[in-house]
Amino acid sequence: MTGANSFQVSGYGPERAGWTRLFARDSLARRLDWPILLSALALSLIGSALVYSATRNRTEINQGDPYFFLVRHLLNTGIGLALMIGTVWLGHRTLRTAVPILYGASVFLILMVLTPLGTTVNGAHSWIALGGGFSLQPSEFVKVTIILGMAMLLAARVDAGDKPYPDHRTVLQALGLAAVPMVIVMLMPDLGSVMVMVVIVLGVLLASGASNRWVFGLLSAGAIGGIAVWQLHILDDYQIARFAAFANPSLDPAGVGYNTNQARIAIGSGGLTGSGLFNGSQTTGQFVPEQQTDFVFTVAGEELGFVGGGLIIVLLGVLLWRACRIARETTELYGTIVAAGIVAWFAFQSFENIGMTLGIMPVTGLPLPFVSYGGSSMFAVWVAVGLLQSIRVQRPMSA
């Protein structure tokens, strides 16, 4: 049986056919990339333990319930899994046709942040309050739509066989598509998310086969733009202070440098195997701010030690390795670009988050994918996993 009827089983009802399809040799379950799925799930479950450890004694934020953040983190993971399944079911090719709608919706949401509906968290006016203690950070979903939108434009004529690689006009259109939400996010201001989007754009261009002159030109423009932003004082005071503390770790250890100093103390005290889960003195004493979100890696470093922190990095590495394989093995440029954009996103955001806890990167407020507490981030990364799985599932079996 081949083609559209390859999954039909003679003599079976829909339910039996579904189960037979699930366990068939070329079934959906067998074609999933299980290392990616299991690594992402393991990271989310490890994050649950770390989030619980960081918040169980924080009565000022957990509403008197030590399991408050644990339950929400697990709920977010469950919703993320459902979004992944929905993404695989729809397929990345179907979503390709829906890119204009998805892009318009994401731009509309980030514009809503700039209205009175937007709220400020840790200096970044990048949230929409939904009521009931829930909020939405639209910039997380913009990362997905930038990848899909740029991939749609850059791959259209190549996949159709009209051109061997994207021409300059197509690249300009793709850059314009990415620039609109990036400028809006910069106005919030959310510099960390903009940094991730810039890396995504570079990753997408490299994977598309566009001229390297575009990459070098963007890097040069980025350097000039960074200097201009600094000289024109576009950054808020808290952002300037963060970069100053990164450049000079001994600057104001009780003020702007407090977060990173306490983070290094927590990680350094963990040693090889850590103090034991739920037994970290820095975590229990609540010395590290935002430990359930931006600085969740410090909990792993202190309580699970080098072994636990290394395990998180290994799991992220497995996920990135398998995503690179998917990007390399797919037969369509669109799938290659989408997978490469996700690799660039996950790799940079993971490096930035872990790096800022170690003091080798500036503090930007980026969550650690799958591990940090936060619904918007969790939903977005699981949608990205769904896209990776869809690309793998829909490739020809011979690939």
Question: Strands, helices and their partners?
Answer:
Blueprint (H helix, E strand, L loop, with lengths): L13 H10 L4 H4 L2 H22 L12 H23 L1 H6 L1 H15 L4 E4 L2 E8 L2 E3 L2 H21 L8 H20 L3 H18 L3 H20 L5 H11 L10 H13 L10 H4 L11 H8 L1 H25 L3 H26 L16 H19 L6
Antiparallel strand pairs: 1-2, 2-3
How does this structure look, described?
Strands 1-2-3 form a three-stranded antiparallel beta sheet, with helices on one face. It is 66% helix and 4% strand. The protein has 17 helices and three strands.
Residue ranges: pLDDT <50 for 5 or more in a row?
A: 1-19
Query: Treating each run of at least 4 consecutive H or I residues as one helix, how many helices?
Result: 17
Strand content: under 5%
Rg, nearest Å: 22 Å
The main sheet comes to:
3 strands, antiparallel
| Percent of residues in helices | 55-70%
Mean pLDDT: 84
Order of strands in the sheet with most strands = 1-2-3
| Helix-and-strand structural type | mainly alpha
- Total E-strand runs: 3
Distance between the termini: 19 Å
Morphology: globular
Order of helices and strands: HHHHHHEEEHHHHHHHHHHH
Q: What are the main properties of this structure?
A:
399 residues, three-stranded antiparallel β-sheet, disordered N terminus, 17 helices, 66% helix, 3 strands, mainly alpha
